[in-house]
Amino acid sequence: MSKDEIYDVIVVGAGVAGLYASYQLASMGWKVALVESKPASKIGDRVCGDAIGIHHFEELSLQVPSYVIDHRYKGVKIYSPSCKYNIVVPGEGVSINRLKFGQWLLSQALSKNVELFDQHVVLDVMLKDNNVTGIKVKRVNGETHIIKAKAFIDASGYKPAIRSKLPREWPISEKPYTTDYNIAYREVLKLDEPLEEVEYAEIYINVDIAPGGYWWLFPKSSSGEIINVGLGVINTGQYNPRVQYDKYLRNKFKGKVLNSGGGIVPTRRPLPTLVWRNVAVVGDAAYTVNPVHGGGIGSSLLSSHIVSKYMNSALEAGQVNEQTMWQANFDYMNAYGGKQASLDVLRMYMQKLSNDDYEWVMENKVVDGGSIYDLGVKGDLAEKITLAISLLIKLLGRPSLLNELRTVRNYMNKMRELYTTRYPSKPEELPAWMKTIDQLLLEYTYKIGFNRGNLVKW
Ligand SMILES: Cc1cc2nc3c(=O)[nH]c(=O)nc-3n(C[C@H](O)[C@H](O)[C@H](O)COP(=O)(O)OP(=O)(O)OC[C@H]3O[C@@H](n4cnc5c(N)ncnc54)[C@H](O)[C@@H]3O)c2cc1C
Predict the structure, then answer these.
(1) Closest-lying ligand 1 atom to the alpha carbon of residue 50
(2) Which of 71, 101, 197, 346 has the fewest CB atoms within 10 Å, measured from its CB?
(3) Which residues pair with 71 in a beta bridge?
(4) Same domain, yes or no, for 187 and 214?
(5) What range defines the domain where residue 413 resides?
(6) 230 and 208, same structural domain?
(7) CA–CA separation, 406 vs 59, rounded Å?
(8) Is 66 exposed, middle or buried (0-12, 13-18, 19+ CB in 10 A)?
(9) Are residues 226 and 310 in the same domain?
(10) Residue 381: is its pLDDT beyond 50?
(11) What does the pLDDT average to over 423-449?
């Protein structure tokens, strides 16, 4: 296709979200351009913990080839700060090879005639009559030109290339706060001495090592030789995850570093809307990551699946805008966004807990693996947990903790309702709904004494 021709859809970013969205829309018969700053051979290469629950693939009927899978887990083991206690959370998962996974998704997209503009960086967005008409791209070490389309998908990750350049009045351009992000560092190592236990992905809670996050040890081979180890910290500007890694983890794991790097994870509720005018946003660009454990591969795929479906019908109807794609918000919020919103409330509270608090919770078996699994799946502080906590706290005498937990549960429920049953039925109602969310967050963060930091500049 010539550069002057108009595509049906331009997708920006060839991470999991953009690859899957472009594959889906091209499969539905649309002319899709995929714009990515990396060279094609590096698509998929990404700093990640590489772990994903297989239910994410199953729910989308995604037949991932076995060569993409490095290792399989029975579940996740969560350790207390002293490591004396642990909780096993059931649920089968895998460690994937991100490069191979990305290359496989790319081959799927190319087989449906997606046109790849690799080594192209998006510089700007062209607007006309309250719609996006094109994007200005620059080929790495090359010329600048404009690519046009009827509809656009921003899948460019935590620093969104399209939506950050849209008018402030468009709710899709909403800016995050600094603490809406965790910053992480991880290494993939070939160990001198292989691990003995490789059946579980391991998470270690310790606020000295990983303040506002956790550190992880994810085996990547059944021999126990290859591991993915890293940590994430809250983005307050106070902590550097690489420094924390060098201080606390480097000496624990001796071996050859196969890959290392840092990354940013948006750990918050989703964007208020995934669609506005002729633009949709998916994956990290739309904050689809689970706020508590930071997993975002599965929900990126899910958001792309949902958005593609409604962009397809909007294109068929010849009218791509928030009215014709609004149902995408309902589907996403009900499938995942509502849970994220309630877990965002819990995340802020958890970021304020001390090692002693975590130790106490785990020592007294306040939560078990099944409840954490439920919490992860449904996003509510299940009655079972609150009941157990109430009983224990009465017995062991921590009434202030009980009050705090009641507050957290209350706000988690309110937030989930706002993102599901009380989500605006039409775009016109969105501004008022957004004000309610802001108000609720203001109230909640004040109550628990959480400082959200500043609005991110971009
Ligand atoms: C350290 C770390 C550990 C993680 N561990 C896990 C884990 O174990 N399990 C899990 O499920 N999730 C994990 N995540 C989260 C997960 O990696 C992301 O949620 C997921 O990869 C997001 O995919 P995406 O396609 O939305 O964005 P990305 O993968 O960020 O893709 C965005 C793409 O857009 C391109 N791009 C950006 N700007 C431009 C531009 N201006 N022009 C052209 N192209 C552009 C980028 O090059 C990139 O290829 C982790 C994240 C980090 C940082």
Answers:
(1) 8
(2) 197
(3) 95
(4) yes
(5) 345-448
(6) yes
(7) 33
(8) exposed
(9) no
(10) yes
(11) 97
Ligand 1 atom nearest to CA at 19:
25
Q: Quote the CA–CA distance of 209 and 92 in Å, as a whole number.
A: 27
Q: Ligand 1 within 6 A of 122 CB?
A: yes
Read off the pLDDT of residues 360-371 as tens digits, 9 standing for 90 and up. 888 887 777 777
CA distance 31 to 315: 11
Distance CA 215, CA 236 (A): 17
Q: Copy the structure tokens of residue 359.
A: 């130790």
Mean pLDDT of the chain: 94
Q: How far apart are the C-alpha atoms of 217 and 203, rounded to whole Å?
A: 6
Residue 386 pLDDT class (50, 70, 90 cuts): low
Number of structural domains, the chain? 3
Distance in Å, CA 276 to ligand 1 centroid: 22
220 and 115, same structural domain?
no
Q: How many A from CA of 379 to the centre of ligand 1?
A: 23
Q: Which residues contact 98 (CB under 8 A, 6 or more apart)?
A: 44, 45, 46, 48, 50
Is there a contact between 233 and 212 (Cβ–Cβ < 8 Å)? yes
At 320-346, the pLDDT tens digits run 999 999 999 999 999 999 999 999 999
Distance 102 CA to ligand 1 centre (A): 11
Helix (H, G, I), strand (E, B) or coil at 237: coil
Diameter of the chain measured on Cα atoms:
73
CATH of the domain at 211: 3.30.9.10
Q: Which of 231, 266, 301 is the last residue of a domain?
A: 266
| pLDDT digits 0-9 by tens, 103-146 | 999 999 999 999 999 999 999 999 999 999 999 999 998 999 99
**Above 70 in pLDDT, residue 397?**
no
The number of angstroms, rounded, from the C-alpha of 254 to the middle of its chain's C-alpha atoms is: 30
Q: What percent of the chain has pLDDT over 70?
A: 94
Q: In this structure, what CATH number is given to the domain that contains residue 310?
A: 3.50.50.60
Q: φ, ψ for residue 264 (rounded to 5)?
A: -120, 135
Distance CA 153, CA 144 (A): 20
Question: What is the length of the chain?
Answer: 458
Residue 339: what residue type? K
